[in-house]
Amino acid sequence: MQTSKLKYWILAARPKTLSASLMPVAVGCTLSYFYESFKLIPAIICLAFALLAQIISNWLNDYFDFKKGADRADRLGPGRAVANGWIRPEEMLRMAVGFGVLAFIIGLALMYYAGWKLIFTGLAVGLGAYAYSSGPYPLAYHGLGDICVVVFYGVIPVGFTCYVQILDWNTAVTVSGLALGLVSTNILVANNYRDREQDKISDKNTSVVIFGEAFGRWFYLCNGFAAIALCIIFIYLGMIWAAVLPCLYLIPHVAAWREMCRIRQGKELNRILAMSARNTVIFGLLLSAGILLS
Predict the structure, then answer these.
(1) How far is 34 from 280, CA to CA, in rounded Å?
(2) pLDDT of res. 193
(3) Rounded distance, CA 169 to CA 152, Å?
(4) What is the pLDDT of residue 80?
């Protein structure tokens, strides 16, 4: 593969947003360490699977958005590989399917640690990646993308990363998954807020398109505070620091929100997307540190 072509594949994978799959695995591993059951090999497998799943989802989104005409010439975000002609549509689809097979094979290895029922989790992740942008009812086009992020970039990766190591699912796991999912959702909210006018023209009915610009701003802010509110539950679980340290996340979160309110529209909103990805890392690290200190 030529160097220039490899660059386009990497760009299509949207590396700046991969914190959304890295941090859930990190938090899940931290929880397993807290419960004195951390295992390196399944942790590495979970990380590889999570990264592949997000990359596949991004490639499929690139492909199907092009097919649906959602990647318009007036797009404000980073260039899309298929729409710009950097990668042919059939190439993108073949690569996504090929990586999907690879992810499935890697995921099968986790059955050794947690049993055959994990295959249903892998199938659910694969179906979610496909249904997000395609199928008879593409979720991203009907205001359900935000829920998908909470589930597939929060609850499932945190929960099952921990589960394959401790073979249990408890309240701390659920709270961690939901909180991180809400924070990760702001990456999508920032993206949809920036593209709201173009998405409306393309009949891509994200939550921001459905409920309006003001909703998008307040939704972004409330997601962060809701994540911190969930962390209060850790106090009742005897994990005090897991409730206290994540509160520091509100500093960069509110700063990003204020920038969003100042900018309101245009390409400058790409800064909010980058800040949101960074804030996901900050929250994940603070929550992990809090769990360890507890």
Answers:
(1) 21
(2) 97
(3) 16
(4) 83
- CA-angle at 46, arms to 40 and 47, nearest 5°: 90
> What residues contact residue 40 under an 8 Å CB cut-off, 6+ apart?
none
**Across the strands, what pairs with 142?**
205
- Going by the DSSP 8-state scheme, the letter that residue 211 receives in this structure is H
CA distance 72 to 32: 44
Q: What is the pLDDT of residue 2?
A: 56
DSSP string, 103-148: HHHHHHTTHHHH-TTHHHHHHHHHHHHHHHH-SSS-GGGBT-HHHH
Mean pLDDT by 10 residues, the chain (294 residues): 77 90 96 96 95 93 85 71 90 94 91 88 86 87 94 95 95 98 97 93 93 97 98 97 98 98 94 96 98 94
Residue 44, pLDDT score: 96
Encoded tokens for 65: 């958005």
Could you state, in order of their start, the residue ranges of all structural domains in the chain? 19-293
| Separation between Cα atoms, residue 140 and residue 244, nearest integer Å | 34
pLDDT on residue 202: 86
Handedness of CA 79, 82, 85, 87 (dihedral sign): positive
Rounded to an integer, what distance in angstroms lies between the CA atom of residue 282 and that of residue 294? 18
Burial class (CB in 10 A: 0-12, 13-18, 19+), 242: buried
